[in-house]
Design brief:
20% of the residues lie in helices and 21% in strands. It is an alpha+beta fold. The radius of gyration is 50 Å and the shape is globular.
């Protein structure tokens, strides 16, 4: 009987031991809490980032600390342009063209001055009648008078001045601007331009 009891106790002990698994393998023992991580590892790549107030989700910054966004200037802000008004024409380009009509004979004459100071007189049918060239001082004086006249701000046509019988009418073309004036409506600035021009007739060189 003692031998049978010993065998029974041994069988029961073995069965009890077989029913108990290792700690953490499905039992309650020392299993790690759900969601915990091993020491020395981070829970996620976004750990420590501020949470979105509405969702609780973490957000990561889009730029590293200490860096600033790169901006490029927009078109039209801070840009530079190359104005054409007031530029010095090339030697072969026309600096100024003035057509004069009227006088006692009622004839038309045109004077064309190039950028190098050379000039040509034309008759009413645009035929060359005389040529010459301004001196350096004369060319400088003409350019100064043209600049001070400020053609871009002059009205294209102006009237209202006193009528001068047998007077002249002028058409100035300079730097892309055309201005027409009767002799009685000439402002002082255009009178200075006329004074700086070579003669309309005669073909002689101007000083």
């Amino acid at each position: 009987m003692r031998a049978l009891r010993a065998v029974a106790v041994a069988v029961l002990s073995a069965a009890a031991l077989a029913g108990c698994g290792p700690a953490g393998a499905g039992g309650d023992g020392d299993a790690a809490p759900k969601g915990s991580t091993a020491p020395g590892t981070s829970a996620s790549a976004g750990a420590g980032a501020p949470a979105d107030p509405g969702t609780g989700a973490t957000t990561s910054p889009t730029a590293a600390p200490g860096t600033s966004p790169v901006t490029s200037p927009s078109a039209g802000t801070g840009g530079s342009t190359s104005p054409t008004a007031g530029r010095v024409p090339a030697p072969g380009e026309t600096l100024v063209r003035v057509t004069r009509t009227g006088g006692f004979a009622g004839r038309t004459h045109t004077l064309v001055v190039k950028g190098d100071g050379s000039w040509t007189q034309l008759d009413g049918e645009a035929r060359p009648k005389g040529t010459g060239k301004l001196s350096e001082a004369g060319l400088t004086g003409l350019r100064t008078a043209l600049r001070e006249a400020d053609f871009a701000r002059l009205p294209r046509i102006a009237t209202g001045g006193p009528t001068i019988y047998d007077g002249y009418s002028y058409v100035f073309v300079h730097d892309g601007h055309e201005v027409s004036r009767d002799q009685g409506s000439l402002p002082a600035s255009l009178t200075k331009v006329l004074d700086a021009l070579p003669p309309f007739t005669g073909g002689q060189d101007a000083p």
